[in-house]
Amino acid sequence: FPAGLQTKEQDAKIIQKYLEKFYDLKIDEVKNPKNKNSNPVTEKLKEMQEFFGLKVTGKPDAETLKIMKMPRCGVPDVFS
Amino acid sequence: FAITEGNPKWDKNNLTYSIENYTPDLAREDVDDAFRKAFKVWSDVSPLTFTKISKGEADIKISFNYRDHYDNSPFDGPNGILAHAFQPGPGIGGDAHFDEEERWTKDHKNYNLYHVAAHEFGHSLGLAHSSDIGALMYPTYGFNDLDNIQLSQDDIDGIQAIYGPSNNPVQPTGSTTPKACDKKLTFDAITTVRGEKIFFKDRFYLRKTPYIPEAEVNLISLFWPNLPGGIEAAHEVTEKDIVRFFKDSKFWVALGTNVLPGYPKDIYTTFGFPKTVKKIDASVSEEYTGKTYFFVGNNYWRYDERRRSMDAGYPKLIIDDFPGIGSKIDAVVNDSGFFYFFIGTRQYKFDLQAKRVVAILKSNSWFNC
After folding, report:
1. Nearest to B325 by CA among B317, B333, B336
2. Which terminal residue of chain B, N or C, has fewer Cβ atoms less than 10 Å from its own Cβ?
3. Of B15, B125, B18, B2, which Cα lies nearest the Cα of B62?
4. What is the pLDDT confidence band of residue B244, given thresholds at 50, 70 and 90?
């Protein structure tokens, strides 16, 4: 199902860019995590879900993606 | 609220701003007006003042920009990121940039410049994003009110934590965001909408969805951008797939999330209320009989949706036909043959067949608190 795959790829890009921009996700840490037991993307997703009062799963569920696609201010929610 | 890391702030209270360029989306005077009003939102609740200058370097420089505008934070075209602003400081500090590829408006259409500007100026003054959905400093765009931004107490606490209280002898107060499990929670109105219940309180709605454990709280404007806050009564007419919203002597009709054109209309012409009725306290519609009940003070009216007229013999006293229900109902909603009357923090489950109250519940019993 190519359409679905494309959507998933697009969503993955949206998630990555969103977390980089607003939650200070470092792509180097994703590639080479300091702690092998924790995934930086999951941790940042949890942070974002907590901020927006969503169910904290660390997974990019529909509600999380909905918030990520909403128009917003470009200032990050958290600081490095 | 959150203050920008490092607590940056202006070391003076009298700040200047300049408008470096104008968007073609609006008349120049509308842009000026949007920014002036946006600054006023903050000067009303703090000791800060803002003066527009056209010569010399202003503390807060405002501009509309496309894509990469050489500040290391390029814009992304239509939607997405709408604007950004820098924390207090010299040079670029305090400056506010707006994405020129957005359509800027002075009404409820996306995106209202006054509203976005008021948020950005919060950053210019040292505020970071708040996680309070009702706060102006919440990071996503949610349109509130055409004329006046109602700051939440959270915003006021934030700005006053940085700059101190307002010089006004009467300290301003803001709205608070309702919490579903607050024991003191009361509602303005409740309606069903295509199978689910929506509860209204001030600028917000609450609803229980299967996706999240707690009730969802969000701005009414998210679903119905052109509805005002403070809806006083609402009901769904399932047969027509419409929802009616009432405030003062006006009402709006929505089909799904679309408020139909031509509204608001007055309640007198459409429903035949006498002019003595200034507002509707609560309303509910019954699918099977096609009757809609309007509760006003200690009286109620019954409207026939099929004949499109008020039934004869009304108003009647609420107490006569709904024994156990006092006057002045906040909200009412129907569910499985019962009317649920909300009065203050209590909820009365009324059996329409037996004509009696069968249970008294807390107002927020629907939220699994």
Report:
1. B317
2. C
3. B18
4. very high
Q: In this structure, which amino acid lies at residue B84?
A: H
User: Does an H or E element contain B34, and which?
Assistant: helix B28-43
Q: Whole-number mean pLDDT of chain B?
A: 94
Please indicate whether residue B120 is annotated as part of the active site: yes
Decide: B275 and B296 in contact? Cβ < 8 Å: no
> Would you tell me how many other CB atoms lie within 10 Å of the CB of residue B171?
10
Which pLDDT tens digit goes with each residue over B85-113? Answer: 999 999 999 999 999 999 999 988 899 99
Does the CB of A65 have a partner CB in chain B at under 8 Å? no
From B120, B232, B236, B286, the catalytic residue: B120
Instruction: Answer whether A73 sits within 8 Å of B73, measured CB to CB.
Output: no
Q: Find out whether the peptide bond into B114 is cis, omega within 30 degrees of 0.
A: no
State the Cα–Cα distance between residues B223 and B121, nearest whole angstrom: 26
Confidence of residue A2 (pLDDT cuts 50, 70, 90): very low
Per-residue buried b or exposed e for A24-57, using 16+ beta carbons within 10 Å of the residue's own CB: ebeeeeeeeeeeeeeebbebbbbbbbebbbbeee
For A63, which of B80, B116, B212 is closest by C-beta distance? B212
> φ and ψ at B53, to 5 degrees?
-125, 155
A48: nearest CA in chain B?
Answer: B131
If you ran DSSP here, which 8-state letter would residue B246 be given? E
In the block, tokens 């590829």 appear at B101
CA terminus-to-terminus distance, chain A = 39
Query: Mutation test of the interface with chain A: which of B4, B67, B81, choosing the one with the most A Cβ atoms within 10 A?
Result: B81
Which residues have a Cβ under 8 Å from the Cβ of A37 and sit 6 or more positions away? none
Q: Which of A58, A59, A53 is nearest to B214 (CA)?
A: A53
DSSP B75-128: --SSSSEEEEEPPSSSTTTT-EEEETTS--BSSSSS-BHHHHHHHHHHHHTTB-
CB contact under 8 A, B139 and A63: no
Measured CA to CA, the distance from residue B144 to residue B129 in angstroms comes to 17
Q: How far apart are CA A49 and CA A55, in angstroms?
A: 6
